Amino acid sequence: MAFLKKRRLLIILVVLVLLVVLIHFLFFTRNGVRLTHSNMHQLTAYIESLGWYGKIIGMVAVFLQTFFPFIPFVLVAGTNVAIFGFKLGFIVNYSMSVLGAVCCFLFARYYGHGWVERRLQRFPVITQFSKRMESQGFFYVLLGRLIPVIPSSAINLAAGLTRIKVSQFLWGTIIGKIPIVFLESMIAHDLFHFRKYKDRLLLLLLILVILLLIGNWFKKRLASKAQDEER
């Protein structure tokens, strides 16, 4: 057991070191800044060139990201912030994210129950989180939105398999998504204006890392609980 704890600590330290190196390369070296900005600006410029079609694409991308999180949310959020401006971009990111989460939840509950159950039963951590949503629905949906314990898409699907009330899921999502969507939208905004908001960006990234560490700690507790139940 002590060996496993030391191994986990070593993995966390290695990840943190790699994260620091990555941040240094992207934000404090000439080539890194050029690479980051050129990719983000090229994507945004292309979508802007499409006019209203581009804006619709940006909105739909956030909606689809809740179902298929193959694209980092911060990248999609950043595109909308660049297209619509920060305030309207945040509203677009937030509203489409909530709408996507609710649709994903309803799909799992009424249409894809069997498929979702087969897909999620392979992950003990999600199973443990679902059990908590079963008894304390609003609180654990809210917690899962505020702290990245498990992926947001997994929360949507897993909640659909429980007996949580739609109102509990809805309010937990509406309230819980405000801080994290605001944080990621702000990070995306500051990435586009790196030279002006460099110090604030680093602070926001630090907050995000802290939330990820807290979520990882909570995930380990859930995994430990799952192992105890299997014995």
From TrEMBL:
Domain VTT: 71-187
The keyword Lyase is assigned to this record: no
TM region(s), chain numbering: 56-78, 90-111, 137-157, 169-189, 201-218
Cell membrane keyword on record: yes
Keywords of this entry: Cell membrane, Membrane, Transmembrane, Transmembrane helix
Protein's membrane topology: Multi-pass membrane protein
Pfam families noted in UniProt: VTT_dom
Protein name: TVP38/TMEM64 family membrane protein
Chief location of this protein within or outside the cell: membrane
Cell compartments where the protein resides: Cell membrane
Family label: Belongs to the TVP38/TMEM64 family.
Originating species: Paenibacillus eucommiae
